[in-house]
Amino acid sequence: MEIQTIKDLIDLWPFRRTLADEVGVSADRVHKWALSNAIPAAFHAQVIQCGVARGFPIDADLIVRLHAKPLPVDNPVTEGQSA
User: Fold this and answer.
1) Residue 67 near residue 38 (C-beta atoms within 8 A)
2) How far apart, in whole angstroms, are the C-alpha atoms of residue 17 and residue 7?
3) Dist. CA 63–CA 13, nearest whole Å
């Protein structure tokens, strides 16, 4: 399964309750992460650690990519420029 959204990442766990228990939050909070397509930065390291412990292909680069806002089409950034 290719991970393209935060929901895809969350769905790697067998149940949202499982991820919630591992990270130390409520299942409702994990459900809200999936609905909003965002995990608060304070939990990124824990999600990565828990995912890696389960053998999931999760790392900081993936978390950053999944949270990145798309660049405006009329103002693309080219190599060597900053956003």
Assistant:
1) yes
2) 14
3) 16
Give the separation between CA 29 and CA 43, rounded to whole angstroms: 11
In angstroms, what CA-CA distances link 64 with 19, 24, 40, 67, 69? 19, 21, 12, 5, 10
Evaluated on CA atoms 8, 34, 47, 40, the torsion sign reads positive
Angle at 32 between CA 36 and CA 41, to 5 degrees: 70
* Series of mean pLDDT values for 10-residue runs along the chain (83 residues): 92 98 98 96 97 97 91 65 58
Q: pTM above 0.70?
A: yes
Dist. CA 51–CA 12, nearest whole Å: 8
